[in-house]
């Protein structure tokens, strides 16, 4: 007999009500059993590394050691307040906000430009799309290795070609005022091609006949963009903004390879701070508290955007 | 301008004279060329002989005396074959287990009716919302508790269940007509047989889309393996490359760094250039992974 074959449902309604409920419950469970067995492998790993990890963060955030060798003791919200009072953490949050804004806006703007210019499919646009997409594929570490030389003072690629135009050569990664922006350039270079794909997909839903009607009515390219294309791309924008924000928090590999958060914490980002607390300072309590705060911020953001998206779908 | 006119020959007649779209296209062409410069430099610097000196290192015009010395040096200094092997083991291991977990769970959500289906669906969805990368600290503690610290299995384990993959497979399975399954059911095929012989063969495109996303993201993963792996001989490519870069940077061996980077990214780039269309359509579905 097959596992998924629906078991016969109880038809007898004359049985005493309580027995009926119990019986219905066990039958329901028995018919559900195959599904549970199929879900079990996934659920085991989700339980360990998603819910388990989540619980672990909450518990670890509540405990602290007085000295590295001292036993763990319950400290309540002390870790959270300590993290919030740590200038390195608040600095990282501010850096991360600048970094998020400074990478999301240009890369989304460029992605839209690329998508609009390359919306038609032919050999030339396919080649250009591929060129813009290449950075998406390579590891952030590899991109960092290449940009280390590009930003190298004096002999690096940037100084060699455009540095001559400037009166004073900037130290791209060594100057605390510039380093964060240098880091942003890598992220923009790496992500614009990825977001372009979503805009290319979104542009396909712009109705051709409306566009034609618009320029018959004398609408120029900018008013067509403003009144037809952009409203149509609204869901794509929302989606890409969420991804860009998540990337701004999770992509920190280049910070690790290029600056290690320096000079003087100018490029320290939240995830790198968490890494430092856990691996360099062995402070699991602080690392967990910082993780918890970041997760709370990100989850409220994604929940909000999911709700907006669901509302939009329900409304239309 | 002739060339651009030819590109716009299928645009609606009324818009063909408009200048703004053409300027946008030109800007995009320039930016696409700029986007390729780091790759161009990587290729040129890899082949540049050390005798050219540090001052010519940034020159994008290839050297007249190309050499393979940099590649040989990178191959000798970094333990790249070992890193390749480790990354391949990690990516294959994750993908194989994921195929099993997402097929079974995806089938349950697509075709079976069971108590608590909505609740379980949301439990899966939570994985997408929790942003796994952020959970490195608790995950490291869990992996250590299992005694898997400094093992490749420890690197793989947190990724064995994939909500993204489950939803992708659910979608693929839902599109398969139930009549096919009913026929197999009459012939007495068991649940596993039906999945194996009907659902999996008809969902190969979805499996390959998922494989592309899974392999590229784990091939490029850095922070997590960096935390789990301690022994040099268990490093994946990304961690190996970062150590290699740090060493070579000290001696200003930029040609060697370019060669090492080239070796690390070449497999992905070549695969992309062969299966370009498939990569791009997979990445569109990957939105939130």
What does this structure look like?
The complex is a heterodimer of chains A (316) and B (289). Chain A has 316 residues and is mostly helical. Chain A has a domain at 96-268: Orthogonal Bundle (MetI-like fold), CATH 1.10.3720. In chain A, 72% of the residues lie in helices and 2% in strands. Chain A is built from 13 helices and two strands. A two-stranded antiparallel ribbon of chain A has the order 1-2. In chain A, a hairpin with a 6-residue loop joins strand 1 (63-65) and strand 2 (72-74). In chain A, helix 4 packs across helix 7. The longest helix of chain A has 44 residues, at 17-60. The radius of gyration of chain A is 27 Å and the shape is flat. Chain A starts with 16 loop residues before the first helix and ends with a helix. Chain B is mainly alpha-helical. Chain B contains 15 helices and no strands. The mean pLDDT of chain B is 88. Classes of the chains: A mainly alpha (316), B mainly alpha (289). Chains A and B meet through helix 1, helix 3, helix 4, helix 5 and helix 6 of A and helix 2, helix 4, helix 5, helix 6 and helix 12 of B.
């Amino acid at each position: 007999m097959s596992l998924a074959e629906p078991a016969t449902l109880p038809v007898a309604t004359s049985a005493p009500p309580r027995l009926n409920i119990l019986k219905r419950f066990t039958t329901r469970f028995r018919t559900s059993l195959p599904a549970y067995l199929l879900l079990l492998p996934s659920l085991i790993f989700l339980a360990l590394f998603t819910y388990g990890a989540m619980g672990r963060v909450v518990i670890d955030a509540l405990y602290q050691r007085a000295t590295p060798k001292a036993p763990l003791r319950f400290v309540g919200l002390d870790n959270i307040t300590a993290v919030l009072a740590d200038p390195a953490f608040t600095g990282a949050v501010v850096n991360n906000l600048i970094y998020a804004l400074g990478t999301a806006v240009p890369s989304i703007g460029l992605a839209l430009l690329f998508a609009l210019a390359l919306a038609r499919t032919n050999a030339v646009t396919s080649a250009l799309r591929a060129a813009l997409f290449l950075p998406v594929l390579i590891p952030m570490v590899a991109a960092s290795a290449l940009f280390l030389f590009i930003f190298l003072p004096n002999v690096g690629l940037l100084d060699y070609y455009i540095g001559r135009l400037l009166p004073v050569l900037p130290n791209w990664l060594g100057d605390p005022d510039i380093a964060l922006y240098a880091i942003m350039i890598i992220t923009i270079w790496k992500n614009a091609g990825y977001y372009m794909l979503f805009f290319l997909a979104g542009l396909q839903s712009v109705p051709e006949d409306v566009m034609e009607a618009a320029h018959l009515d004398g609408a120029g390219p900018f008013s067509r963009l403003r009144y037809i294309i952009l409203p149509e791309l609204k869901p794509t924008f929302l989606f890409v903004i969420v991804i860009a924000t998540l990337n701004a928090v999770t992509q920190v590999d280049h910070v690790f390879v290029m600056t290690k958060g320096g000079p003087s914490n100018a490029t320290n980002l939240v995830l790198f701070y968490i890494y430092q607390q856990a691996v360099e300072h062995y402070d699991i309590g602080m690392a967990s508290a910082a993780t918890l705060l970041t997760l709370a911020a990100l989850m409220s953001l994604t929940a909000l955007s999911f709700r907006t998206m669901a509302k939009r779908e329900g409304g239309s | 301008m002739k060339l651009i006119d030819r590109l716009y020959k299928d645009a609606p007649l009324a818009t063909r004279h408009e200048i703004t779209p053409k300027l946008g296209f030109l800007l995009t062409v320039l930016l696409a060329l700029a986007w390729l410069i780091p790759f161009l430099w990587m290729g040129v610097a890899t082949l540049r002989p050390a005798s050219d000196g540090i001052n010519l290192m940034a020159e994008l015009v290839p050297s007249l005396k190309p050499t393979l010395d940099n590649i040989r040096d990178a191959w000798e200094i970094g333990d790249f074959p070992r890193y390749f092997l480790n990354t391949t083991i990690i990516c294959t291991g994750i993908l194989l287990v994921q195929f099993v977990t997402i097929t079974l769970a995806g089938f349950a959500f697509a075709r079976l009716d069971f108590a608590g289906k909505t609740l379980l669906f949301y439990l899966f969805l939570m994985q997408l919302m929790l942003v796994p990368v952020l959970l490195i600290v608790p995950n490291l503690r869990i992996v250590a508790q299992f005694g898997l610290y400094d093992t490749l299995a420890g690197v793989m384990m947190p990724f064995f269940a994939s909500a993204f993959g489950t939803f992708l497979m659910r979608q693929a399975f839902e599109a398969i007509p139930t009549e096919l399954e009913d026929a197999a059911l009459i012939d007495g095929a068991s649940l596993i047989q039906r999945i194996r012989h009907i659902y999996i063969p008809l969902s190969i495109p979805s499996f390959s889309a998922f494989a592309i996303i899974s392999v590229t993201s784990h091939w490029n993963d850095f922070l997590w393996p960096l935390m789990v792996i301690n022994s040099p001989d268990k490093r994946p490519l990304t961690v190996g490359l970062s150590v290699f870069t740090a060493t070579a940077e000290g001696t200003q061996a930029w040609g060697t760094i370019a060669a090492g980077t080239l070796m690390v990214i070449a497999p992905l780039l070549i695969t992309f250039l062969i299966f370009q269309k498939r990569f791009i359509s997979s990445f569109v579905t990957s939105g939130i992974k």
